[in-house]
Specification:
The protein is of the alpha/beta class. The protein is built from six helices and ten strands, in the order H-E-E-H-H-E-H-E-E-E-E-H-E-H-E-E.
């Protein structure tokens, strides 16, 4: 998506050779028009997959996952990172490290919102090391649902996450692929 690449160039900040701050586009502020375009793109790419639910991990993936679910006409479900008083005691749970937060968290998904007959499309904002993605993939597998693919807004090609997901035989579609953040410069792949 050329428009997304342009917005990344204009509005993101390279924090280090490993970290790109996308707060103005994805992680703190959301542009509804751009988000809907991203949702339409993911919906088009996975139109033939028979998706019955879109799933993401809170919180930065929610807006794009919502746009995708709306376009596909299916429910959106998100895995929670914090247990609440209302949490399902029988929730599917996986402990995962967070690259950007530098901590380990639990992601939880109530069994009420994912069924074995579901065909699930997982949408996320960024894939770096892929720990959260692999954790949610494990939860989906334990639910008995079929994971039809993973759509990622930004793939950081220089980190192992996307590669490890693809090595599991999972279809992974990225809207933008970043080859490098070396010397404070964003270099796109493709």
């Amino acid at each position: 998506m050329e428009k997304l690449k342009q917005r990344i160039i204009e509005e993101s900040t390279v924090m280090s050779e490993q970290v790109l701050n996308l707060d103005g586009i994805l992680n703190h502020q959301v542009d509804p028009e751009l988000t809907m375009e991203m949702g339409r793109e993911f919906a088009a790419r996975f139109a033939d997959a028979g998706v019955t639910r879109v799933i993401t991990v809170e919180s930065s993936g929610i807006s794009v996952a919502f746009a995708t679910a709306l376009e596909l006409g299916v429910p959106l479900v998100f895995a929670r990172r914090k247990k609440t008083l209302l949490a399902d005691p029988d929730a599917l749970c996986e402990r995962v490290p967070s690259f950007t937060k530098g901590i380990v968290t639990d992601i939880m998904l109530s069994r009420k919102y994912i069924r074995p007959e579901d065909k699930v499309l997982f949408i996320d904002d960024i894939i770096a090391n892929g720990d959260a993605a692999r954790g949610l993939v494990k939860i989906i597998e334990r639910s008995g649902a079929e994971l039809v693919g993973l759509g990622v807004v930004v793939e950081k090609c220089f980190q192992a996450g996307a590669r490890t997901i693809r090595e599991q035989g999972i279809r992974l579609e990225s809207l933008v692929r970043i080859e490098s953040l070396d010397h404070g410069t964003i270099t796109f792949a493709d």
